[in-house]
Each structure stands twice: as structure tokens, then as C-alpha cells.
């Protein structure tokens, strides 16, 4: 990296691991590298699930020490994490216990209980957010009901990226993209909805001022500045929700695209200027979350590579340890398999045997069951591609513009075989990459805050110019894929959606 080019530090923290990535960008060249990685695990204590935020803070501190040892002059720091979870902070700045984790079972069935106060349709009409048990709205409702002491004594509620930036700087903000996942914001006014807050029994004053990506939170505390030797480095509120950071890094040339953030779990959506809240979006369980520049990420969750990862783990126990490259070759070798499954079917959420669950599904739907490992791979990959097509068709029907291509970002963008299969099934070009979209989006929001990019389109042109991407175009007879897709909809009972 050049000595004088600004260096931006991104903390990209997920539910199972976190990492620190530095990016150098001087306006002409962009280079990134990972400098620190660490595990992130849920703590189970007396029947409750928590995030060990002190461990995460210590890992952030270690990454800062790495920067100091390497002599990196950090221009700014940004943090992105998962959504919905938060910590409680007292008036004097004390952190009131560990943040509850979204996997804590205390929210099981919570939405239905809340809908006795405000109907489901009304909640969706206000927020445009899909209903999930662990949304902040339902966490708060359950916490109040159980008399959760940290909430009772809190002066501020800080969502996870804001909580971590608070630990680094001592300043409290509420970043918009992460707050938008809470199901507490009105999708139109983009402010906390007073009726929803009143229904759960909390005051709007519990949340600090809403800020947009690119806002300066503050600077490293005196203690961290002195201990690390980095000095008073600026901390910037980036797109704090990790998917918002990833979408910021989609290398699109114009608005007429859909994106697929592909990994173990996947998200497919479009970027709009206004929320889409209709009967159809409600019925299909689409969600409207905040993006950079005040945009809306209109998207839907899709099961991703989870099925194949569980199959691989099963085969590994039996002594068949397939590499990632071998799996993609197996998809080609498995050609001719005609069995498909609905990857979002609840039976695939966490079965004792994924291959057994696939066989059961095929038997239930009157299909021939996969027999070889290659046929299982082909079944899963084709089912994923058809699932993407199903969601894309809904997006096309609701989007305020034509969708001319699909951008695949995240780790799944490296799966060339699935990328080509997806292009064949959807009948549109697929543009794959970057695989490190979340960290890149984080860094480029910082670069824009530093005046190195005019807007999100300039950021995206930087990525297109400097990061390797690959395009896939539809192949094969269109009639074959249309018939296959119609058969998939039939066997998965989706033909009437």
C-alpha cells in the first residue's frame, strides 16, 4: 500500500465471526486486505442468550494494535454488524449487562402476542418490515413483559454497531440502516413510530439521534488513542447493517438491477427511492430496509447454501470430504436429475440428516429421489436457481423500473456453476462479485465521507473499475428452462402464489 494514500479500517462483524479489513484508496487505486479475524459466539447463561460485547471490544482493540504495529495511518474507522439486537446503556455511560442475542428463545411466538395490541397488517403498513420473531419490536415487548432490569434502567438503547462505536468513542448515535431492521421505524417518515413504541411501553427518547451513513460519530477515546498509538482516529457511522454495506458495494451502472447477497443465507432485492408497501408485498413477506443515501432495500430472505453445507458435513462424517471446487463439478456431473425441493421449507431448517430431509420431500411430492452425491448437489443447486427466479418474478411485478440484470455479491458469487445455472433459469445476465462486498461497502462509505467519492454511483464505479467481476449470460434453450421452472413450481406448490 502507498504511504500517503488514506487507509480506511472496516470492522465487519457477523453472528459467528468478525474481521478487520483495511482499504487504501487514493482516487485511482483500491486495495484491501484482512488484518485480523476472530470468532463471535453466543453465550448461553441461565437459559438466556447473550452477545459477549466485551470480547468483541477486545478484538477491535487488538485490530487497532495490529494497525499500530504495522505503522498504518488510519484515516477513519467504520463498523457494520447484523441487525435488530441492541444494548442498554445507563445515564452515566455504564453498559447495563450483555446484549440479548436474536436467537434467544424468549421471542418465540412473540409477534402473535403483539398483534393482539396492533394487527399484523397495521404493523406492516407502518413499517414495511417482514415479521420475524426476533425483530427489535418483539424483543422489547417481551423484555417489558418480563421486567427486564437493564431495559428498566436504560437511558439509551444502542443497536450493535452503535454500541461498539460508543465503546470506541464514548458518543451515542442511532445509525439509520441498522435501526430500519428493528420494525420500529415508520417506513415513510423514517422516524420511530410513536404508536408502536407506546404499544411496547418504551419512550422514543431511549434512542439517540438518527444519523445517516457517512456521519462522524466521534474519535477514539483518549485511552484507546494513547494505548494503541494511533491517535484520535475518526469513527464514522457507515451503513451499520451488514447487508446495507454489501448492497452499497454492488457494482451497478444504473438503477435497473436486482441483487442477490449470496451465502449460507441469501437476500434478493432491489434498491428504490421509496418503500413498496402493498398487498402483494405483504402476502409475499417482502421487507423494506434502509440503504445508503436514504434509499430503500426492498428484499426477501432466501435460504442459500445452507442445504449444500449441511450435505457436505454429512458426507464428511462418512469419509467423503468434497472441496468447494469438487462440489461445483458435481453439479455438472449430476445432470439429468429431475428432483427439486423448496429450500425455504421448514423441514430443511435444521434436520438431523439433510440428505434424508431431501429424500423425504421428494417422496412426499412424488418425485424420483436423488441417489448419488452428485444428484443431491444438482437437486440443491437447481432448486436454489428456481427459488431465485421465483423471487425475481415477484420483484419484477413490484419494481418501479425494469430489471435488466442480477448482481450476485458475497461469498456465493464465487460459485461459477451456480452463477451460470442462475443466468440460464432467470433468462438475464448475472454479474458476479465482489465476494467481499460488505467490507468494501463499509470502507467506501468512509472514503466518500472523506471526499473521495461524490455519491453511491461513483463508489460503485470504483468497485467496477478496481475489483474483479465476472459476467454470465443465459445459455441453452429458453423453452427447456421455462418448462423446468413450471415443473418446479408445481412440485413445490408455488404455482398459485
From TrEMBL:
It comes from Candidatus Parabacteroides intestinipullorum. Residues 258-450 form the Carbohydrate kinase FGGY C-terminal domain. Keywords: ATP-binding, Disulfide bond, Kinase, Nucleotide-binding, Rhamnose metabolism, Transferase. GO terms for biological process: glycerol metabolic process; rhamnose catabolic process. InterPro entries: ATPase_NBD, FGGY_C, FGGY_N, Rhamnulokinase. One of its GO terms (molecular function) is glycerol kinase activity. This is Rhamnulokinase. One of its GO terms (cellular component) is cytosol. Residues 8-247 form the Carbohydrate kinase FGGY N-terminal domain. Belongs to the FGGY kinase family. SUPFAM superfamilies: Actin-like ATPase domain. The keyword Transferase applies. It holds the Pfam family FGGY_C.
Amino acid at each position: 500500500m502507498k504511504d500517503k494514500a488514506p487507509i480506511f479500517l472496516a470492522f465487519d462483524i457477523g453472528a459467528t465471526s468478525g474481521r478487520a479489513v483495511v482499504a487504501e484508496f487514493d482516487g485511482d487505486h483500491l486495495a484491501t486486505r484482512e488484518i485480523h479475524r476472530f470468532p463471535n459466539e453466543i453465550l448461553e447463561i441461565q437459559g438466556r442468550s447473550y452477545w459477549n460485547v466485551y470480547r468483541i471490544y477486545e478484538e477491535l482493540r487488538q485490530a487497532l494494535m495490529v494497525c499500530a504495529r504495522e505503522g498504518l495511518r488510519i484515516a477513519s474507522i467504520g463498523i457494520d454488524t447484523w441487525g435488530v439486537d441492541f444494548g442498554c446503556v445507563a445515564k452515566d455511560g455504564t453498559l447495563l449487562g450483555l446484549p440479548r442475542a436474536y436467537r434467544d428463545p424468549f421471542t418465540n411466538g412473540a409477534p402473535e402476542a403483539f398483534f393482539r395490541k396492533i394487527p399484523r397488517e397495521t404493523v406492516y403498513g407502518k413499517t414495511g418490515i417482514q415479521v420475524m420473531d426476533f425483530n427489535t419490536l418483539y424483543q422489547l415487548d417481551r423484555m417489558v413483559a418480563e421486567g427486564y432490569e437493564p431495559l428498566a434502567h436504560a437511558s439509551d438503547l444502542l443497536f450493535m454497531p452503535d454500541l461498539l462505536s460508543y465503546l470506541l468513542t464514548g458518543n451515542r448515535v442511532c445509525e439509520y440502516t441498522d435501526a430500519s431492521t428493528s420494525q420500529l421505524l415508520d417506513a415513510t417518515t423514517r422516524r420511530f413510530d410513536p404508536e408502536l413504541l407506546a404499544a411496547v411501553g418504551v419512550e422514543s427518547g431511549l434512542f439517540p439521534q438518527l444519523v445517516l451513513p457517512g456521519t462522524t460519530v466521534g474519535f477514539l477515546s483518549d485511552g484507546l488513542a494513547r494505548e494503541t498509538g494511533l491517535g484520535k482516529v475518526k469513527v464514522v457511522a457507515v451503513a451499520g447493517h451488514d447487508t446495507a454495506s454489501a448492497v452499497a458495494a454492488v457494482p451497478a451502472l444504473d438503477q435497473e438491477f436486482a441483487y442477490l447477497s449470496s451465502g449460507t443465507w441469501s437476500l434478493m432485492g432491489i434498491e428504490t427511492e421509496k418503500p413498496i408497501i402493498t398487498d402483494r408485498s405483504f402476502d409475499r413477506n417482502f421487507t423494506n430496509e434502509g440503504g445508503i443515501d436514504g434509499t430503500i432495500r426492498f428484499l426477501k430472505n432466501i435460504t442459500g447454501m445452507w442445504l449444500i453445507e449441511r450435505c457436505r458435513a454429512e458426507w464428511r462424517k462418512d469419509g467423503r470430504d468434497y472441496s468447494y471446487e469438487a462440489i461445483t463439478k458435481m453439479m455438472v456431473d449430476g445432470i439429468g436429475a429431475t428432483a427439486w425441493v423448496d429450500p425455504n421449507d421448514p423441514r430443511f431448517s435444521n434436520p438431523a440428516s439433510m440428505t434424508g430431509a431431501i429424500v423425504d420431500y421428494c417422496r412426499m411430492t412424488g418425485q424420483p429421489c436423488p441417489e448419488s452425491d452428485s444428484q443431491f448437489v444438482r437437486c440443491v443447486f437447481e432448486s436454489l436457481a428456481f427459488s431465485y427466479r421465483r423471487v425475481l418474478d415477484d420483484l419484477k411485478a413490484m419494481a418501479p423500473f425494469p430489471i435488466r440484470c442480477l448482481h450476485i455479491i458475497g461469498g456465493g458469487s464465487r460459485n461459477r456453476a451456480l452463477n451460470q445455472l442462475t443466468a440460464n433459469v432467470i433468462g438475464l445476465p448475472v454479474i458476479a462479485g465482489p465476494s467481499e462486498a460488505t467490507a468494501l461497502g463499509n470502507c467506501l462509505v468512509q472514503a466518500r465521507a472523506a471526499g473521495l467519492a461524490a455519491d453511491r454511483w461513483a463508489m460503485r464505479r470504483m468497485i467496477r473499475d478496481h475489483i474483479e467481476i465476472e459476467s454470465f449470460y443465459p445459455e441453452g434453450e429458453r423453452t427447456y428452462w421455462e418448462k423446468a421452472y413450471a415443473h418446479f413450481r408445481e412440485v413445490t406448490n408455488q404455482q398459485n402464489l
